[in-house]
Amino acid sequence: MTIERKALPQYPQVELGRRIAAFSIDFFVVWVISSLAGSSGIGIQLMQILVFAIAWLLLRVVVVYNNQGQSLGRYAFDIKILEAGRARVPDLQTLLQRESIVGLEALLLAITLNNVIRNPTAILLVLPLVIDCGAAASDTQLRQTWHDRYARTIIASSRRGYSLDIKVKRFLATVRRNVRR
């Protein structure tokens, strides 16, 4: 009996910067929505947490499932989520598992941003997100984070999207060209 190695299908690599930018757009939208539900009290309130969780699940699970693997941020940067080894969008259970991990880390980031001025040690709440996403920087083959490995998903480039990063680069090149004149 011999052991055969299966070659993993190759998908277009997504730079870490594009992934961070797409996450930032999704996070900012959900954070603003949840901030509208809060009061002027110190810290983050239970209502904000509830609104954040619901908005996160809607944007990162329901929208992704119904929009060919793309959330708002991923659409802006031509990125989509796929099952590892298959070229299809993960099912709802897989997306829910994946996004519950990322959603908790994003919630801790929101708590940090709401409290860092009053309590500078709140910056420590960002550590789970940094550790989770730091795995993608060390994985040169698939660039999977810990939540991607847990849910058996990958992030791949897509032909469908707004190409925000390319449009910003073109705009900046035009501005530089005009400034030099």
Model description:
By secondary structure, the protein is mostly helical. The chain contains seven helices and two strands, in the order H-H-H-E-H-H-H-E-H. It has helices at residues 16-36, 46-66, 72-76, 92-115, 127-138, 146-151, 164-180, and strands at residues 79-83, 153-157. The chain has a two-stranded antiparallel sheet with strand order 1-2.
Question: How are the secondary structure elements laid out?
Answer:
Blueprint lengths: L15 H21 L9 H21 L5 H5 L2 E5 L8 H24 L11 H12 L7 H6 L1 E5 L6 H17 L1
Antiparallel strand pairs: 1-2
Helix pairs in contact: 1-2, 2-4
Query: How much beta, percentage-wise?
Result: 5-15%
Secondary structure category: mainly alpha
Write down the domain tally.
Answer: 1
The major pleated sheet works out as: 2 strands, antiparallel
The best one-word shape is globular
Lateral arrangement of strands in the main beta sheet: 1-2
User: What is the chain-wise order of helices and strands?
Assistant: HHHEHHHEH
- Rg over alpha carbons: 18 Å
Count of strand segments: 2
Helix content: 55-70%
Cα(first) to Cα(last) distance is 70 Å
Give the rounded overall mean pLDDT.
Answer: 89
Low-confidence stretches: none
Number of helices: 7
